[in-house]
Amino acid sequence: MKQSLATIRQDIRDGKWTEQTAGLASGYTQANLVILPKAQAYDFLLFCQRNPKACPLLEVTDVGSAVPKLTAPDADLRFDVPKYCIYRQGKLMEEVTNIEAYWQDDFVAFLIGCSFTFEHALMDNGLKIRHIEEGRNVPMYITNIACEPSGVFHGNMVVSMRPFHAKDVVRAVEVTSRFPSVHGSPLHIGLPEQIGINNLLKPDFGDAVMVKEGEVPVFWACGVTPQSIAMSSKPELMITHAPGHMFITDMKDSHYSVL
Amino acid sequence: MKQSLATIRQDIRDGKWTEQTAGLASGYTQANLVILPKAQAYDFLLFCQRNPKACPLLEVTDVGSAVPKLTAPDADLRFDVPKYCIYRQGKLMEEVTNIEAYWQDDFVAFLIGCSFTFEHALMDNGLKIRHIEEGRNVPMYITNIACEPSGVFHGNMVVSMRPFHAKDVVRAVEVTSRFPSVHGSPLHIGLPEQIGINNLLKPDFGDAVMVKEGEVPVFWACGVTPQSIAMSSKPELMITHAPGHMFITDMKDSHYSVL
């Protein structure tokens, strides 16, 4: 039996669900989380504006508030993510299941669109997602494409890769183009070495998947980019979700389609 | 003979062109301008993120820089707009043709998408724009729709109106949906009283245009919203372009289509 969003969120809040969220609360938009003190929030907000494919913003909370009042007004971002990462000076120091003890009055939380949304749309269109078929995490790579910097934030873009049979690539572009607020259309098709990826079998994050004869690798800007940016920019303190352990909003995926 | 973008920008910079920019440098994206001191920039940047249909951001300059390095790296926002408005405490104090004397080291400039871009797309699709046919300014109305507030910035959304024959309304939605970064799809179709507009013949900005028998009024979120927000939020100092006197970027309109 499928569980309701309310039940799932309560289980996460109570620490009963600390696993990945792929496939949970199907149809509801999941989001990447970045939390920074207000002193760094302007630079990061502008970083997102300048890099909308990697960091498409769904919502930014008011200073000191853990409530995303526009996309999930009953949620609390201190508890409602299954697992969090605490970065200090760009180093992952700890993984925790709530951040009550870390919360500061000057925190700002950024919710960033996640590829789960467009993967649902691709599957609705009959396209199979290899890493889901294989039961793995999506392969992610750090590219040679520099993000547009903003203040202290700089670094290279991270992309995710999904292989498709050549005949399906056009449809994959069409379907994902309709969702600019969850990474939108692909960043690159076909020649990974042109974006600094020399070995598809060795992703920087996630798991390698098989690219079969007659298939083309298709790359999308990835919401893991902020973690990579944290590592290169080394802010004093930055809290994120743990990869794959997303925040589930009240919004339906279809809400984010522009067409 | 059509003039090049470079010639037009030089004429504006030299103060030789101080008129509206509609139809100038056809194909190049024009932008609304808002300039605020850094102290207000975070709240305004977040205001734009929360109100993307009214305030779709094309670029935000670095603090103190008048150069929009991503959309027009050779331009200077102190000179390259034909006419500027100086607002103090929400009141329009002065209109000037350059802001050299007003520029401050803590200024941040926001370039916001403009409906000229989607009007070109509508005309390319064979749809006629009434206010252009009549040689008038587009009619704009303050609605009863509250913007999502951010810090000091609050107020109601401004919309522009274009009437279309009922048979053309669907195409108008389709065409403009492809341009989310220049206001995107309409905000409302058909019943102006539902969004607080009681008399189409009395716009709050611009000129009234004829709505003929068999036509439906279609409303888009409007880049004049920031001026209206300035009036209701009363920041100490805010500089904008004068309505219709836009900044012309180096970007082509087609760049902003997501599909």
List low-confidence stretches of chain A: none
Number of discrete domains of chain A: 2
The separation of the N and C termini of chain A measures 32 Å
Secondary structure class of chain A reads alpha+beta
How many β-strand stretches of chain A? Answer: 11
Largest sheet of chain A: 7 strands, antiparallel
Summed over residues and divided by their number, the pLDDT of chain A gives a mean of 95
| Residue share in β-strands of chain A | 25-35%
CATH architecture of the largest domain in chain A: 3-Layer(aba) Sandwich
Radius of gyration of chain A: 17 Å
Tally of separate helices of chain A = 6
Which percent bin holds the helix content of chain A? Answer: 10-25%
**How is the quaternary structure best described?**
homodimer
- Could you give the order of the helices and strands of chain A? HEHEEEEHHEEHEEHEE
Q: What is the approximate shape of chain A?
A: globular
Q: Greatest contact pair?
A: A-B, 20 and 19 residues
**CATH C-level of the largest domain in chain A:** Alpha Beta
CATH superfamily of the largest domain in chain A, called what? PSTPO5379-like
Organism (chains A, B): Domibacillus mangrovi
Family (chains A, B): Belongs to the D-glutamate cyclase family.
InterPro entries (chains A, B): D-Glu_cyclase, Putative_hydro-lyase, UPF0317
GO molecular function (chains A, B): lyase activity
Report on this model:
2 copies of one chain form a homodimer. By secondary structure, chain A is of the alpha+beta class. Chain A has 2 domains: 5-114 and 234-252, PSTPO5379-like (3-Layer(aba) Sandwich), CATH 3.40.1640.10; 116-225, PSTPO5379-like fold, CATH 3.30.2040. Chain A has 6 helices and 11 strands. In chain A, the strands form 2 sheets. In chain A, strands 1, 2, 3, 4, 5, 10 and 11 form a 7-stranded antiparallel β-sheet that branches. In chain A, a hairpin with a 2-residue loop joins strand 3 and strand 4 (91-96). The mean pLDDT of chain A is 95. Chains A, B: It comes from Domibacillus mangrovi. Chains A, B: This is Putative hydro-lyase BLL40_11845. Chains A, B: Keywords: Lyase. Chains A, B: InterPro entries: D-Glu_cyclase, Putative_hydro-lyase, UPF0317.
